[in-house]
Design goal:
Length: 144
């Protein structure tokens, strides 16, 4: 109940459904605001889910956990992380995962370590919020 499936199936399903509902392809997303609670089981499962959803593009998409800066805000986490995702689009700057020095095996994506990254052409972001018992949600935001 407190650990996700190792393959990240629930997380992957939430992302796939959000991408489908947005009418876009996974490769159009430039940044994923990960649920990223810094738990070994959760982070590995989410990384695996990103790999399964994005396929070859998984190595190109930037993924960070803004919880690394805020801590887990519980009921407010999804709202605050959505704001980070929207600001990334507005400012064309991807927030970092701070204090990421030794990622676990299997956590081998571009986690934007330590410092925000200025980008150009960021059009879509995906924001993940996952909870105990399978309360999984993903939102897509588009630059307008």
């Amino acid at each position: 109940m407190t650990s996700p499936p190792e393959d990240g199936a629930g997380a992957a399903l939430a992302m796939v459904n959000a991408i489908r509902d947005a009418g876009i392809e996974p490769g159009q997303i430039g940044y994923v605001n990960a649920h990223g609670t810094s738990t070994p089981a959760g982070d590995k499962a989410e990384a695996q889910a990103v790999k399964s959803v994005f396929g070859d593009a998984a190595r190109r998409v930037m993924v960070s956990s803004t919880k690394s800066m805020t801590g887990h805000l519980l009921g407010a986490a999804g709202a605050v992380e959505s704001i980070y995702s929207i600001l990334a689009l507005r400012d064309q700057a991807v927030p970092p995962t701070i204090n990421l020095d030794n990622p676990d095996d299997g956590c081998d994506l571009d986690f934007v370590p330590h410092e925000a990254r200025q980008v150009s052409g960021l059009e879509y972001t995906l924001c993940n919020s996952f909870g105990f018992g399978g309360t999984n949600g993903s939102l897509i935001f588009k630059k307008v």
